Amino acid sequence: MQMLMPEPQIFVERTLALIKPDVVDKEEEIEECILRSGFLILQKRKLQLSPEQCSNFYADQYGKVFFPNLTAYMSSGPLVAMVLARHRAVSYWKELLGPSNSIRAKRTHPHSLRAIYGTDDLRNALHGSLSISTAEREIRFMFPEVILEPIPAGQRARDYLNLYVKPTLLAGLTALCKEKPADPMTWLADWLIEHNPNKPRLQHPITEEEHQ
Known about the structure:
This protein is of the alpha+beta class. It has ten helices and four strands, in the order E-H-E-H-H-E-H-H-H-E-H-H-H-H. The protein has a four-stranded antiparallel sheet with strand order 2-3-1-4. The radius of gyration is 24 Å and the shape is elongated. It starts with 12 loop residues before the first strand and ends with a helix. The model is unreliable at 208-212 (pLDDT under 50). Pfam families: Dpy-30 (PF05186), NDK (PF00334).
């Protein structure tokens, strides 16, 4: 019986992470944990939100009993905003955070970040986007200058690799086999830099008169 193997998927998600005002002094510790967990930090900034900005950010929570306390807490001091990236970034970041209530997190997920750094249901130390669409909205809110382009996935990603990546990589590996250098990794890295098809090239040599 022929075994059906799933086709490889190339998909990198982005999510928003916030280090909330009461644990900003633990920024380095938290970032180290984020990097150890396989995330890349694409963007980072420290800022302080006004109560009005907090209200806009948490607009989906408007009308709930805790909303005034939430906006007051989030605007009480500087916070750190980060764009994190990795495969299934949204779900992995939520898993690393643990339950939103830090008291419950300490009981059920003692190794989660909210269990370690959080205090209670409100002061839970960190924020994470709930979904991919929420992450896009929140990233635009915290990083309005960032252009979020759609990341190719599935067939689009395979088409991109076949068209732009594989031909150059195959040529480089073929040259590597012929050359047989002592340090193949460094040699291949240098070869790829030199033969990058996207590297800008001069159409004609610049003469001394043109340069002057």
